[in-house]
Amino acid sequence: MIHDDIPTDSFFPLPDHAGQSSARRKTGIEIEFAGLSVGEAAQVVQNLWGGTISPVDERDLKVKGGRLGEVKVELDISLQKKWAEDLAAQALGGLVPVEIVTAPLAQENLREVDHLVGELRKAGALGTRARLAYGFGLHLNPELPGPDGAGLVEVARAYAFLEDWLRHCDPIDPARRVLPFVDPWPAALKDALAQAKGWSVAQLARTYAALAPSRHYGLDLLPALQHLQPDALEPVPQAHLKGARPTFHYRLAEARLDEADWSIAYEWNRWCLIEAVAADASTLEDLAQRWQDHRAGLLPRGSDWAARVETLLCGANLLSHFGAGTGQQG
What we know:
Blueprint: E1 27-33, H1 38-49, E2 52-55, E3 61-64, E4 71-75, H2 82-92, E5 98-101, H3 110-123, E6 138-142, H4 152-169, H5 174-178, H6 187-194, H7 201-211, E7 219-220, H8 222-228, E8 249-250, H9 264-279, H10 281-296, H11 305-316
């Protein structure tokens, strides 16, 4: 499988889009885990990257002045009312993850986050598969390819067609599947995107707001669309509009910090493969047509969409563009 050729110890560069270089695009990273307190996790960050630990409130800290910018370390719980958050933190204990949120990082610095994962693992951090009820995620926030949203529609289309394949190749932990945070995109949205060649960002925003008005998807486009087309998002509940920013918000990835063969690089490279499909017009349109045929029942009965994607991706040999394998192994 092409998925088996995705490196876990090196980082792909982000592909270029619409003639715009991605070399300077930065990415913020959010990592959830258990096993350490907020203070213990902040100490690990400080020991590795330097800086000064400063309190934000009773549960949240910041590490300021380190060599990779400001880092937030906090309990990942937001119930709007402090008394409710206090009660939930006491009652749920380790089920409320500690979250580390980095500043936007240059691509050449992403390997430093894998170094941090290694230090957190040594300190006793636990990932999503360490306990039955854990459901911890890794969120990647790559900057958009261009200030005007160039490439956004294409990335949305690529994700729509690759999502089932990504979930099939590396199934999501059961605890995360039952939580309302990484739902699959609705089939109606994927159907619309299959016919979205040449769409503007405004068309994408209106369609997304109508068919997927929630932030709880494996790829949450609302921050980017709120930044680019805020007036198009009127159908979206205000509780799901957490703030405009010129980034993708990729939430599908899991945080498996205590597993030695897991890495940030692995999840990053899966995202880069999505962008590689988006940047390859021929492969993207082939997937779009096959999706329409799949939905119309024109493909053979019993045809599995993930298997179809696997066959097409192997033929496109996209990993070779990154200098990683041939994508031809079965």
